[in-house]
Amino acid sequence: MTAILGISAYYHDSAAALVVDGTIVAAAQEERFSRKKHDERFPTHAIEYCLREGGLTADQLDYVGFYDKPLLKFERLLETYLGTSPAGFSSFLQAMPIWLSQKLYLSREMTKGLKGLYRKRYIYAGHHETHAASAFFPSPFDEAAILTLDGVGEWSTGTFGVGRGNRIELSHEMRFPHSLGLLYSAFTYYTGFEVNSGEYKLMGLAPYGEPRYVDTILKHLIDLKEDGSFRMDMSYFNYCQGLTMTSQKFHDLFGGPPRKRDSDMSQRIMDIGASIQRVTEEIMLRSARHVHAQTGMKNLCLAGGVALNCVGNGRLLREGPFENIWIQPAAGDAGGALGAALLIWHQLLDRPRTASATDSQQASLLGPEFGDDAIESFLRGVGASYSRVDDDETLCETVASAIAAGKVIGWFQGRMEFGPRALGARSLIGDARDPRMQSIMNVKVKFREGFRPFAPAVLREHAHRYFEVTEGLESPYMLLVAPVRDDRRRPLSTEEQHSTGLSKLQAHRSEIPAVTHVDYSARIQTVDRERHGLYWRLIDAFYRQTGCPVVVNTSFNLGWDPIVNTPKEAYDTFMASDIDVLCMGHLVLEKQKQRAWVSVDVRREPDAVLREVWASPCHRTELVVQGEYLLCSECGLRYPMEGGIPQLFYPHDGFAQGGDVTETVKAFYEETPFPNYDDHDSIRSLIDKSRRGMYARMLDAAIPYNSTVLEVGCGTGQLSNFLGISCRRVVGADLCLNSLRLGTNFARQHGLDRVAFVQMNLFRPCFKPQQFDVVLCNGVLHHTSDPYGGFKSILPLVKPGGHIIIGLYNTYGRLMTDLRRLVFQATGGQAKWIDPYLRSTPMSLEKRRAWYADQYRHPHESKHTIGEVLQWFDERRVEFMRGIPRVTLDGADANASNLFSPSSRGTRSDHFWVQAKQVVTGSREGGFFLMVGRVPGTAAATPQARENERVAVWR
Question: pLDDT confidence of 947, banded at 50, 70, 90?
Fold first, then answer.
């Protein structure tokens, strides 16, 4: 037995692949384990998986291969920096420390990554050699031409040659800096997408524009030859010497600076996208024709990042000279790991190769898999509601019926895919006939741009009936684009024919509108019984039920995450989005059966979320809905509801008298709601902003799904809405009606059915006791006349075993803010740049005004210490869990990222020094600190026991 491990790392999408006696045993990208999208670090987890799958340890490996030659790459970097000096000095300073500490010592790094167990030879293959090997050796061809196109390897940016039997030979190359991959990436950068991950977004955007800039690109940027080679005018680009892709000269040529990410998409940007896509396709076609003429081969194998441009691939198939094309499913850098292993087996060791009738990639299902028992054990552990359907036919019929009913399905089956595409193992599936499905899956499931197209998965035997492909064509890896057949298209109205830009999305162009792009194209995946098993049976069941053999297939992940790998990740994604059904193995979960779901018959009523938890604040008894009012069942007092917001504010003892400041604070926030929304805020932008903030991100990770959450003093409800995107019931309470209107309007506009808002006085809560798993009270108590009294008022709302988080101004951390307040008072509010948050955080004018008013013009605030809050916890028998910032000097905390894990409460000395540090470090956020507590006990088992506990708490 000969075991060979291939590795790609340190640039983009690191991966590992294991080949044993010429058979591909396992392959996976590191991102699927680390959960960092496009993770470039050494693929420790991917290697561990591959060895485990092969039943091996590192010392049993015979060879380890790396996907490029680091010394040649280093030579290219040095020559480039020297050739562009001094312009590239800042880029040089960033790159060199990494090279000198890590990349030049790859043998050491790989030995460390293999835990010192592997002590044999490391083999470094050429970058484009590994691309070529990954394309030809798994292909179904005995001989073929090979074309590789990407950004850059060592020096090569594109190569071609031939593969015969067990050998490949690359005869021609194009060299850096002239690169089709880098040219496309430059336009990716300019149009506002992320380089090395946003190229497919640019490809999806292109059909919304017109290729008006093709001549501009060909005249100014590149000198394109008939053979597909070209030279670039490097004065328009900055990637050789700088930290950006394009230069000022490029920006002047195309009429302005690069588009800012998440800003509106102009017609100009769409036209630029259409233009570079057209040029890219032309280069691919010319290259293929030249390779065909030079090699005389009838078959072509493709790899390299450009080979993921499936629109170009489709044109190669339809218009190019080759009879057959095979493209490596992991065509980018990840596939280099597989290419390195296969190159060693066939070319270095001269082992024979027999081409398979289909291919030897095994449908690219080369990752981990999980059995039903393991999945069910996980689901029991998280308390999920699920059913088990052991019969395959019944399972497929059930899920197919859900698809036909317009539901979005999470499909988690068998071994995970290797490569960037979901191919029916980790997929989200929908009804291709549903004209709403593209919008639903983009906006409410993937949380991404609405223009992004989805791919059809079609039964192979029916593909030619829906798409312009030859009967029996195989496209199992979703790497070819084909037009929808004319007889499946829908005639457009005159208005639809003249629509431009993103308005083209509104037209339904075929019988399968969810997968028909605006240019009538579709990125097809053919599904066959032999390769795809249960996936084929599911689509076949849908076909028998509906007469349509086509479904939507997209990757099972949220827009910012890698494709799911484990049952936990699939469950988390299901619960964090509007996926309706999750099918993992033979276990089926329905969103409507999860505890936090708001049932369909009441979800549109304003009290749907509140009904189970509210109580009259005057007598703490049941509330009765009567038209636009709520009535206290004890005294009949009426509380109005305005715009779906129950106004349950009830004065407490001493309200508006003496030292009480409630009315003053209420009036302040009615005038200046805080924090305000930006005009363009969407679900995705809210998620992005919240994930950038440490606290919101940690809360989202710590609060279990199916929890009931109360945010006291929610302001405009941004945190409440963020937490309610996932499957939790969230109630936001505040005394300011203007703020609550903003939160309610956002929730309604974006369909956040599990979020509700209520006007409430925290000293007279309008909820039954012990209703909430988590109560949040951030930045509220220090604006009351009795912070400890407020804490005592809301604490009974927490369930036994639940958590409470309070946020307060710190006595020491607030000193710099107080000093700035004096400056503003003396200057009439001038010099706002001295506030570090305003100075460094981009925000709208309205949000800047709200922040400044909250920090510097508030009519009342108090300040507190760590010791003071610990005393509150002790007096009310609340278990201290942790503080943010940490309340101890000891920085070692294995569970620092888990808000609800216990930690040391520290000593008085710890508290003094931690708070002294807050004078400087707490300045940016106004000296704010958080304390997390847990209410002892566990939830009572029976409804009667719970009711007895509630009565006892109120008394």
Answer: very low
**What mean pLDDT do residues 355-370 have?**
94
Residues in a beta bridge with 410: 428, 582
Residue 612 in domain: no
Mean pLDDT of the chain: 88
Classify residue 600: in a domain, yes or no.
no
Say which CATH number the domain at 573 has.
3.90.870.20
Contact present, 727 and 576 (Cβ < 8 Å): yes
Tokens encoding 396? 């497929």
Instruction: Return left, alpha or beta for 762; rule: phi > 0 is left, psi -120 to 50 is alpha, else beta.
Output: alpha
Segment of 482-486, 677-681, 949-953 carrying the highest mean pLDDT = 482-486
Place 164 in a pLDDT band, splitting at 50, 70 and 90. very high
Q: 110-119 burial by CB neighbour count: b if 16+ within 10 A, else e? A: bbebbeeebe
For 800, list phi and psi in degrees, rounded to 5. Answer: -55, 130
Are 442 and 448 in contact, with CB atoms under 8 Å apart? Answer: yes
User: Distance between CA 389 and CA 396 in Å, rounded?
Assistant: 10
Q: Which residues contact 518 (CB under 8 A, 6 or more apart)?
A: 207, 208, 504, 505, 507, 509
Predicted pLDDT at 507: 81
Domain that holds residue 439: 372-593
What sign has the CA pseudo-torsion 277, 278, 282, 283?
negative
456/483 Cα distance (integer angstroms):
12
**Tokens for 487?**
């007889």
Structural domains of the chain, count:
3
> Does residue 323 form part of some domain?
yes
Q: Which tens digit of pLDDT belongs to each residue from 96-106?
A: 776 766 777 88
Q: Which amino acid is at 72?
A: L
Shared domain for 692 and 771, answered yes or no, is yes
Same domain, 586 and 661: no
Euclidean distance between CA atoms 343 and 204, whole angstroms: 34
